[in-house]
Amino acid sequence: MALVPCQVLRVAILLSYFSILCAYNAIDMPAHQTYGGSWKFLTFIDLVIQAVFFGICVLTDLSNLLTKGNDSQEQERQLKKLISLRDWMMAVLAFPVGVFVVTMFWSLYIYDREVVYPKLLDNFIPSWLNHGMATKETPFGFWKQILTWEFGQQCY
Q1: pLDDT per residue over 119-156, tens digit each?
Q2: 49, HSE (Cβ side, Cα atoms, 13 Å)
Q3: Cα dist from 108 to 18, 101, 104, 156, whole Å
Q4: How many Cβ atoms are within 10 Å of 64's Cβ, its own excluded?
Q5: Which element (helix H / strand E) includes 106?
Q6: Buried b (16+ CB within 10 A) or exposed e, 5-32
Q7: Cα–Cα distance between 76 and 70 in angstroms, integer?
Q8: Full DSSP string of 52-106
């Protein structure tokens, strides 16, 4: 079975999340040295949730490709569990938290930048990394939904 565009897109999205996580962890910020480290920031938590979610998506795609045409009931049962986990994570964590973070971050940023992203952070976090952490969750979530709808069962 050939790869379909949504499978390739999921791998690209997963790699982009890993690159942003690596770039963010490489930053030496004073806030990372205090209690909670990076985990006290909802944008970082959301980034980890999205990376785990797209990791599960890629794992599901690989499992589906490897078990296609196989008559093993056990493998089919495990694949259905993985698909259920992926769908649950999308519905409960990845999409709602992603939309919330993007909406709240940019609403507060427009209202008063100093509340959510003080100008002092420009010295530590480049603007591309800020957008990678606080913007791309919603478009990637929508793309995932649209591609799943467009290609139907091919994306499973």
Answers
A1: 888 888 888 888 787 777 667 766 666 666 544 444 54
A2: 26
A3: 26, 11, 6, 37
A4: 18
A5: helix 95-111
A6: ebbebbeebbebbeebbeebeeeeeeeb
A7: 8
A8: HHHHHHHHHHHHHHHHTT---HHHHHHHHHHHHHHHHHIIIIIHHHHHHHHHHHH
| Percent of the chain topping pLDDT 90 | 15
Question: For residue 2, what pLDDT is reported?
Answer: 56
27-64 per-position pLDDT tens digit: 887 777 888 888 888 888 999 999 999 999 999 988 88
Cα 118 to Cα 6, 105, 139: the distances in Å are 37, 12, 25
Name residue, tokens 């909670």: 36
Distances (CA, A) of 66 to 3, 56, 84, 154: 12, 15, 18, 14
Angle, alpha carbons 119-123-125 (nearest 5°): 90
Can you give the pTM of this predicted structure?
Answer: 0.82
Q: Check residues 90 and 156 and name the one with the higher pLDDT.
A: 90
What type of residue is 61?
D
Report the distance separating Cα 138 and Cα 102, nearest Å.
7
pLDDT score recorded for residue 149? 54
Burial of 67 (0-12, 13-18, 19+ CB in 10 A): middle
Q: Which two tokens stand for residue 13?
A: 């999205």
